[in-house]
Amino acid sequence: MKTQTKSQRLYLDYASTWPMRHEVWEAMSAELAQSFNPASSHGPGRQAHRSLELARAKIGKLLGCTRAGIYFTGGGTQSDNLAILGFARAHAGENPRIFVSEIEHKACIASAEQASAEQARVSEVPVDSSGTVNLGWLERKLASDPKAPTLVSIMWANNEIGTVQPMSEIVDIAHTNNAIVHTDAVQALSKVKVDIEQTPVDLLSATAHKLGGPVGIGILYCRPGIRLEPLSYGGGQERSMWPGTQNPLGAIGFTAALALALEGQREHVAHWEELRDHLESRVLSEISGARIHGHDARRRLPHIVSVGIPGCDSGAILVSLDLEGIAVSGGSACGSDSGLGSSVLDALGLDVKPPYATIRFSFGAETSRLDIDRAVDALARIAGRVHSLSV
Ligand SMILES: Cc1ncc(COP(=O)(O)O)c(C=O)c1O
User: Fold this and answer.
1) Does 96 reside within a domain?
2) How does pLDDT run across 53-104, given as a tens digit for each residue?
């Protein structure tokens, strides 16, 4: 496992973007000849079309679904928008309902807000202090109007605190009540088992750059037969669901990154769990008042740790870590009224007063125990300094 000396930069922000893996780069370079327009009828165009369709078939196989359900998009945000707004618009005039959890990514929350502005009935599913959705609440609400077209959109795993939702139970409850399920699997894919045959969600969003693939390519899985209204109009590519010139090289990169991530999943998860437990126990014992958000969740992602430090300002800590060459993230850029700085943390109902720092660490294949020790040493030192300046 590669380690880093003190003078080297230490990247612990893989949940923001997993920098493109060398093997993915190689797979894409080998296919540079496919940089043609797959809609062109000449030979190079037809070859690019074949590569795109091969990528679609491989992704379908890796996700446990048919290739006919895979639509290429420009990333996770676009897939989330297409799923939620596309559903609302396809059912406009039928009084549709949309349920999103309180801790969805902005891409889903903002899509649901737009759907609400377009007359869909939108409700937020509450979560407990670990970030797990309240299944009883959801079941009662779904049962109250089983005839209305209904979409339940709940992320498979949360990007800030790592809570993994009970997707199979959510799907069972939704399907029993005539609703369909969309899940944002952007962070869950390759960290927990995501198999559409086993957990039959109807719509699923994923993006390549969280897997070590290129930025700007994602997929939406849409179960054949589900009605979505496209959000843009053009030349009919992606069976008119996401028109515009397709990106075969990006699709090749997505496929290579997904295959590689799934191949290494078992080994990475075991390694990350060890790193996560080590980081958490050091933080809890060495930083006064520190807490781990979502710590008591039944299941959490292995590679994300969200640390809360009362009495400190997030910005001061992030800048100080960055000056030491350590790249982490503050959780979410979304504003909130409570001073927590995150609508996700607000939803957990944490009993804290500002200032309150939130630092998210996330690991990649190369992250080592020495890296974690370096990051915790720096965090403990900086938190002590920032805390004494704040009081
Ligand atoms: C859970 C989740 N959904 C959606 C997105 C957006 O994906 P993209 O950056 O590909 O638009 C992100 C990225 O931060 C994410 O973490």
Assistant:
1) yes
2) 999 999 999 999 999 999 999 999 999 999 999 999 999 999 999 999 999 9
In a 3-state reduction of DSSP, which class is residue 286? helix
pLDDT of 333 above 70: no
Partners of 323 in beta bridges: none
Are both 122 and 231 inside the same structural domain?
yes
Q: Ligand 1 centroid to 19 CA: how many Å?
A: 14
Which of the listed residues 263, 290, 316 is the one where a domain comes to its end?
Answer: 263
| Residue that terminates a domain, selected from 236, 263, 290 | 263
CB 306 within 8 A of CB 360: yes
The answer to whether residue 243 is domain-embedded is: yes
334 belongs to the catalytic site: yes
Residues whose beta carbon lies within 6 Å of some atom of ligand 1: 75-77, 80, 105, 107, 155, 159, 184, 186-187, 207, 209, 218
Atom of ligand 1 nearest to the CA of 215: 10
154: DSSP letter: -
Predicted pLDDT of residue 1? 45
Specify the ligand 1 atom closest to the Cα of 157. Answer: 1
Residue 181 bridge partners (DSSP): 152
Q: What is the DSSP letter of 306?
A: E
300 and 242 assigned to the same domain: no
Residue whose CA is closest, atom 4 of ligand 1?
Answer: 76
Q: Which of 108, 222, 312, 334 is catalytic?
A: 334
For residue 338, the model assigns a pLDDT of 55
Ligand 1 atom nearest the C-alpha of 79 is 11
311 backbone dihedrals φ, ψ, rounded to 5°:
80, 0
Enclosing domain of residue 285: 10-20+265-390
